[in-house]
Design goal:
heterodimer, A: mainly alpha, about 75% helix, B: 6-stranded mixed beta sheet, about 30% helix, BP-dependent_transpt_permease (chain A), membrane (chain A), transport (chain A)
Chain lengths: ~280, ~525
């Protein structure tokens, strides 16, 4: 563990990213303490600029507190990011594992199925799914999971392909272990590091995707999200720039932090790769 | 200068342009010939043949090319247009219109009474459900001579004249439509009317151009050479076009309400909220009475009392429009100022709900209702967000569902909703535009009928009495009575009397002179030098 942290902290950006991410988590956790009441409540006059009348980041067109919106919105963004990533991993890892381990015609079938999903532009597909199932938080998470699993499946399959002919797997087979237990206890742990790195980046892209959907008005209308804040501020940007700029910064910082952490994880989990990169720089 | 003005006065004394010249002079400017007026059309309509398409953008642009027999003043008095005069018999059943002479279609053919008979009895009767509902009252409609039309009704119908505006029943050319499918006739793509401007060019997605019709029947008019409607899909680009002077006039929902305060401050622009008296759109929370507890009048009244309508007007619509006071807009005929819904009072609303037997649960919620925001743009979403907060104060949880415009219309039409937002035109008279929402005989699976399912025999009887009475005073009595019942019953929760500002450069004159705002023919509009 100490070794892991040492390698992770060698990448200074990753540490900064982690700090930012913890801050975002703290804001999400304490949102109802920092900003009690509903973020939809009209707290003051509309279009109050940042810093005036006790509005840290200004108020929107209905006099709602933008800071409260961002704080409460961070919960939804992180929740959507986490839940949809878990859902994505479930689909992607199982299909990738089956395809990589079993091989043969099963591999072919699963990969063609994956390619089918990869050929559809993912954002358009997500819009379509949300529009069909009416915008609710469940349909948004579902849509994000459905459009983002193919890369996971491909990475996991590649790992499995290279691992399944290794000696320790053959040894396990000879010992008469069942296929399922070989996959779960022998191969998967060894394939974990690329999955961890990939999923940290997927959380970031899920947050972006959710924000883009909300921006277009396809978010859950009962939940305050960052994308919704930007979408509702877009048309009044000439009157109230703060309505879209601050939630935009929130998305930017969070996604950047996740990417930095992802890079740090990749360095920590693939020491050889990191050393090469360090040597080059 | 004095000479030319005297010349104008002399011409005015004899010509039918009297009205407009006076208006021009009242502003201290004599009408000037020439110039191009650029406006905007949002969204782009599929066709400009009025009747075939009756949506807002068509109703705004097409009256430049098509005219009705009449038009209406801001107080909804009929004004002559293609009919230069008319008489109504004592019993209110016989209408005789004398038509203008020397009127030509844009293709050069003469306009006659046959065109009028065709337009009323065939064209609009087939195409427009709204016109059909009224025109089925006609027993005979005949051309007495080429310039006289006589219409006999089966029963007296006092608001009948309101159906003869260009937006309700524009007169179309018989020789271009008779015997064809009206929707696919070639004239639909190249409209031919009697109006001051003739259709010249339409580049889809770009602009519609209409040029001055030289044989227009009003002497010396129109003043403008060309009218151009530009298609600009983005609202901020529309605002920029108006600010930069690329276009000189914006109408209806071209400009978003939140941009209006800034535009009001520009010294060269006039923001005019008049001209919607004929349509008088009224917005409300549409309630489905089949959903409990919305069948309880106390619940509806409490919900209505929880809404601060001044907040909606001032904060959401930036001061454009008026709080609604009842089912009839204050600009519609037979509005009764004494019948008013209960004022904004959250405490009383809560007390009323306690009384009605809806206690709050642990979360402070009495009951939950689903709510579909009107998918006509951002401001309606904001309105629903406000209403959700307002309802929370009386323990009513509104659960918002998003839909697109198509599903909204389908779901409201099929009664598949609990609450939503709706706004409906009143067409000047409660019988034409208000009755349809409240009488039980109009409970239909069609949007803009009594989709809420409200039913009250007393209300039915009063609307019927007002419909069949031939005398205005008698109708006023019935309408006052029905307004008193409705403001107590609150079948729908009326919110605001909407107004859509017409914003134009101050050098454009005579823009709003009728009760139809920018949906007029523009023959008297000119650009002062």
């Amino acid at each position: 563990m100490m070794d892991f942290w040492r390698r992770f902290s060698r990448n200074r950006g990753a540490v900064v990213g982690l700090a930012i991410l913890l801050l975002v988590f703290a804001v999400a956790a304490f949102a109802s303490v920092l900003f009690p009441g509903s973020p939809w409540d009209m707290a003051t006059a509309p279009f109050v600029p940042p810093g005036e009348e006790g509005m840290l980041l200004g108020s929107d067109s209905l006099g709602r507190d933008v800071a409260a919106g961002i704080a409460h919105g961070s919960r939804i963004s992180l929740m959507v990011g986490a839940v949809s990533t878990v859902a994505t991993l479930c689909i992607g890892v199982s299909l990738g594992a089956i395809s990589g381990y079993v091989g043969g015609w099963v591999d072919d079938a699963v990969m063609r199925f994956t390619e089918f999903f990869q050929t559809i532009p993912s954002f358009v597909f997500a819009i379509l799914l949300v529009a069909i199932f009416t915008p609710t938080i469940t349909s948004v998470v579902f849509a994000i999971a459905v459009v983002s699993w193919p890369p996971v499946a491909r990475v996991v399959r590649a790992e499995f392909l290279s691992l399944r002919s290794r000696e320790f797997v053959q040894a396990a087979e000879v010992l008469g272990k069942s296929r399922l237990s070989i996959v779960v206890t022998d191969i998967l742990p060894n394939a974990l590091s690329p999955i961890v790195v990939l999923s940290s980046l997927m959380v970031a892209s899920a947050i972006l995707l959710e924000s883009a959907l909300s921006f277009l008005g396809l978010g859950d209308p009962n939940l305050m999200t960052w994308g919704f804040l930007i979408g509702s501020g877009r048309s009044v940007i000439r009157i109230a720039w703060w309505m879209s700029v601050f939630p935009g910064l929130a998305i930017f910082i969070t996604v950047l932090a996740l990417n930095l952490v992802g890079e740090g994880l990749s360095d920590a989990l693939n020491p050889r790769l990191a050393r090469q990169r360090g040597g080059a720089a | 200068m004095t000479v030319s003005r005297r010349g104008f006065m002399a011409a005015a004394a004899s010509a039918p342009v009297l009205m407009t010249v006076q208006q021009g002079l009242a502003q201290g400017v004599a009408p000037r010939r020439g110039g191009t007026l650029q406006m905007m059309l949002t969204p782009e309509p599929p066709v400009l043949q009025i009747g075939v398409n009756q949506q807002g953008p068509t109703l705004a642009a097409a009256p430049k090319m098509f005219q009705g027999l009449l038009t209406f003043s801001p107080t909804l008095e009929p004004q002559p247009l293609l009919a230069k005069s008319w008489t109504i018999s004592e019993d209110g059943k016989e209408y005789v219109f004398s038509l203008q002479e020397n009127v030509k279609w844009h293709d050069g053919r003469a306009f006659t009474a046959d065109d009028v008979v065709f337009s009323i009895m065939k064209f609009h009767m087939e195409l427009s459900p709204r016109a059909r509902a009224i025109f089925t009252l006609i027993e005979t409609c005949e051309a007495r001579d080429p310039h006289t039309v006589r219409i006999v009704l089966k029963q007296a119908f006092q608001p009948f004249l309101l159906m003869f505006d260009a937006t309700a029943a524009a007169i179309v050319a018989k020789h271009l439509f008779d015997g064809q499918d009206y929707r696919t006739a070639p004239a639909v793509q190249r409209p031919v009317g009697t109006g001051p401007f003739r259709f010249t060019e339409w580049q889809r997605g770009n602009f519609v151009r209409m040029d001055r019709f030289d044989d227009y029947w009003k002497q010396g008019q129109p003043y403008l050479d060309t009218v151009i409607y530009r298609i600009i899909p983005d609202s901020q680009s529309r605002r920029l076009a108006l600010e930069s002077g690329q276009v000189l006039l914006s109408q209806a929902s071209d400009i978003e309400p939140f941009d209006i305060p800034q535009l009001r401050q520009r010294p060269n622009l006039e923001v005019n909220t008049n001209g919607w008296e004929y349509f008088s759109p009224l917005s409300w929370i549409e309630l489905n009475h089949r959903v409990k507890p919305l069948d309880d009048a106390r619940v509806r009244r409490a919900m209505s009392m929880a809404i601060d309508r001044n907040f909606i007007i001032n904060r959401l619509w930036f001061g454009v429009g008026k709080p609604a006071t009842g089912p009839v807009a204050s600009t519609t005929r037979f509005y009764d100022a004494n019948a008013k819904i209960a004022a904004f009072n959250v405490q009383q609303a809560n007390a009323l709900l306690d009384q009605a037997g809806f206690p709050r649960n642990a979360q402070g919620v009495r009951f939950t209702l689903k709510h579909i925001p009107l998918p006509y743009g951002e401001i309606w979403t904001r309105l629903s967000e406000y209403l959700r907060q307002a309802m929370r104060q009386i323990g009513v949880a509104l659960d918002l569902e998003s839909t697109d415009a198509g599903s909204w219309a389908r779901r409201v039409g099929n009664w598949e909703y609990e609450t939503t937002i709706n706004f409906v035109y009143q067409f000047g008279d409660p019988t034409l535009g208000v009755e349809r929402t409240y009488v039980s005989s109009n409970i239909q699976r069609v949007t803009f009928t009594n989709t809420g399912g409200y039913s009250n025999p007393q209300v039915d009887a009063l609307f019927q009495a007002a419909r069949s009475a031939a005398v205005a005073a008698e109708r006023q009595r019935a309408f006052s009575e029905v307004q008193k019942i409705l403001v107590e019953d609150v079948p729908q929760i009326w919110l605001t009397e909407l107004a859509f500002p017409t914003i134009y450069d101050k050098k454009v004159r005579n823009v709003i002179t009728t009760g139809l705002g920018p949906s007029k023919s523009f023959d008297d509009v000119f650009i002062a030098g």
